[in-house]
Amino acid sequence: MRHWLMKSEPEEVGVDHLAAMPRRTVPWFGVRNYQARNFMRDLMQPGDPVLFYHSSCAEPGIAGIARVASPAYPDDTQFDPASKYFDPKATRENPRWMHVDVQLVKKTRLMGIGELRSHPELAGMRILQRGNRLSITPVTLDEWVFIERLLD
DNA sequence: GCCAACGTTGGC
DNA sequence: GCCAACGTTGGC
User: Fold this and answer.
1) Which residue has the higher pLDDT, A130 or A99?
2) Which of A3, A28, A42, A85 is spaced 20 to 30 A from A48 at the CA atom?
3) Counting beta carbons within 10 angstroms of the beta carbon of residue A111, is it exposed (0 to 12), middle (13 to 18) or buried (19 or more)?
4) Which positions on strand B lie below 7 Å from a protein C-beta?
5) Which nucleotide is nearest to A9 (CA to C1')?
6) Which pLDDT does position A2 carry in this prediction?
């Protein structure tokens, strides 16, 4: 089992939006970065724990705990010319973009990026590195345990 | 709005 | 296959 951090813009899909979805689950559509796709396609397993992170907003930080809720499958938005995620090079026979479903486990207090930075134990997290833009990043077990304790 | 960082694109 | 240009991300 691996642990993950997944960024989402709360203007698009925030923790409250996720909480209101049927089965508190959303397809993680719209990822158009190969590294992030490969994490979902090749490494994620249903049940993997996920830190749900709000980014590009007034209060960036961890806002909830979620889990991977499906194996990877093709992202429908790549086939839809009306979608901003449309990819003309993708076909049904040869999908380029895959994603998993993500299910909210629980909303947590907001653990802001400043608080994350304040803990030397978390200094290695990708999310805290300068210039990091990857929307899905692995979290070590040590980091996961440390953060989960602080969220309680 | 700024700007550093980084992924992608495309000409060669 | 190189690499400059460009676009996007995301914290501040």
Assistant:
1) A99
2) A85
3) middle
4) 4-8
5) C10
6) 96
pLDDT value for A131: 86
Structure-token pair, residue A124 = 């290695």
Which of A28-32, A53-57, A78-82, A117-121 has the weakest average pLDDT?
A: A78-82
Q: Which of A95, A106, A104, A105 is nearest to A72 (CA)?
A: A95
pLDDT of residue A89: 86
What DSSP string describes chain A? --EEEEEE-HHHH-HHHHHHSGGGEEE-TT---HHHHHIIIII--TT-EEEEEE-SSSS-EEEEEEEE-S--EE-GGGG-TTSTT--TT--SSS---EE-EEEEEEEEEEEEHHHHHT-GGGTT-GGGSTT---SEEEE-HHHHHHHHHHH-
Q: Which of A49, A69, A70 is nearest to A138 (CA)?
A: A49
CA of A135 to C1' of B5 (A): 14
